[in-house]
Amino acid sequence: MASLFHFLLFCSLLFLISSSITIATTSFRPKALVLPVSKDASTLQYLAQLNQRTPLVPVKLTVDLGGQFLWVDCEQGYVSSTYQPALCGSAQCLLAKATILCQDCPFGPKLGCNNHTCNVYPDNTVIGTATNDELAIDVASIQSTDGSNPGRVVSVPKLAFACGATFILDRLASDVKGMVGLRRTGVSFPSQFSAAFRFRRKFAICLSSSTRSNGVIFFGNGPYVMLPNIDVSKSLIYTPLIFNPVSTASAYQIGDPSLEYFIGVKSIKINGKSVPLNATLLSIDKKGFGGTKISSVNRYTVVETTIYKAVIKAFVKALANVTRVASVAPFGACFSSKNIRSTRVGPAVPQIDLVLQRKRMHWATFGANSMVQVSNDVVCLGFVDGGSNPRTSIVIGGHQIEDNLLQFDLAKSRLGFSSSLLFRQTTCANFNFTSNIA
Question: Helix, strand, or coil here: 312?
Fold first, then answer.
């Protein structure tokens, strides 16, 4: 009964916010939206650009699968005639669960600090730092899509976001002004867009491995078509999204669950052979420790020390015919690439499988996603030691999910994944951003 009550409450709150977020062009209601995503060459962060404010300004943002909402720096250069603080008791405050953080500005009203507004925690997950700042509302625009091409631009007049401080931009890519959160909260992009345009709470992310070509995020249902006319949505494999009972955010209220994206990994195989490891680490305990989550801010896959050592040992054994060379930080297993042939899916190295809820269901990782080229003739296994007691046992990082399409169906609480698109002779850089629908 409790879960039903919370579901009905969430639906009613989404109705409230959908009535307060209106569509600019009422004669056109998009079925899906599209956002290009670039890869920064310096930080390897994934970046999106959103047009926000009045007049509209392009705002560069770091993409964070685990982020709670959109937050931007309001201390430097934020100018908009349509900026509004979110008042206590508003639909946005209720969806952000910020009602107990309702307060007045102690030093007088100003941009980012107004009386009788609710506060939230903008969180820079790259450095694990959060602040307590004002929830606000402003205009934003984004391009629609039919899944094959970009369409007309649509506006959301009242998109909720956190008005953050400049100092939490630390270690974000150059010219980035904040982070865009895709977590399953009421004020994340997936929830707000689905409420505004009344499509399903679903989004798909496809990160490019190239720093010269854009990947893509789709909001809404498929198709998700990559050149040459390949609908990736037709070949997805689905696995449940797992709830962690304890928040994994940098700042949170006691009792909050984590709304990051966890999946149920049961075991790991290398070249078809199970890696011996402590299976209890793969489950989430009552304190929120353990399990496997997917992250776009971690560059590489980070694993608990005993799992890391077991994976390294098994991988080195399976690649015994290739010369192992000195490790290159932060990696622990590096090899001479002179005797490793190239294939359609990257270097010809042992396949790594994350076995999911059934033995025959696995997320296959091939050389393009498991190996990192650190010099002309050295490649390293892209796994990093996460220490002996990390909060999460396995964090699947950006490198491992590049050129894989991941669909997060929030309504059904499931993940659809394609495995490497390279097998299908396409990549995440192959969405056609150049043609517009009339």
Answer: helix
